[in-house]
Specification:
single chain, mainly alpha, two-stranded antiparallel ribbon, 2 strands
Length: 178
């Protein structure tokens, strides 16, 4: 059973990393702990950055900023505006929603295979990561994540309700990379 959990745990790690990258670039309050837009300063090619470069492949602005590993706040803020303007944050939210949905299905499959209701805590962790990332005042983003609700009948007869996200757009290229 432990080896069957590896895909779920690996996926939770990917979700966490993408959420961390998203928050680093999207949430101005995040900078208090890690540094304002630190991923730009470090020249990190995260999902939002890769999307931004791909969306405007003929515009070298973002690539130049990343190569220089800019430390100037105005330049970093310009890069974040660039990502917002080309839809990179919306795209990243959609990737997170799709991975969230996939993780919930993997947990559900494990429960069905082993005839148990042990996935509640794992679902809570996954939901917590996703909701903490996307709840920064963006109700539309949360709507993308929590499209459907499912219930699980627990062994003690109680019912546990949890959100299972259903992505609205397929990202086959992104999923193939993961």
């Amino acid at each position: 059973m432990v080896s069957e959990c590896v895909p779920v745990v690996d996926l939770v790690g990917v979700i966490f990393q993408i959420c961390d990258d998203y928050v680093n670039l999207h949430d101005t309050g995040y900078g208090q702990g890690k540094g304002s837009y630190e991923d730009v300063t470090e020249g990190i090619f995260s999902i939002p950055v890769i999307h931004g470069i791909s969306a405007r492949h003929d515009d070298q602005l973002l690539l130049n900023v990343l190569r220089r590993k800019a430390t100037d706040d105005a330049v970093k803020q310009q890069s974040v505006r660039y990502l917002r303007d080309c839809g990179s944050f919306a795209y990243t939210r959609e990737v997170i929603a799709q991975l969230h949905w996939k993780a919930m299905l993997l947990v559900k499959d494990l429960e069905q295979k082993h005839e148990g209701n042990f996935g509640g805590p794992l679902r809570a962790i996954i939901d917590g990561i996703v909701k903490a990332t996307l709840s920064g005042g963006d109700d539309q983003a949360m709507g993308e994540v929590a499209k459907t609700t499912s219930s699980t009948l627990l062994a003690d007869g109680n019912t546990q309700t949890y959100a299972v996200s259903q992505p609205t757009v397929q990202h086959s290229e992104m999923m193939a990379m993961l």
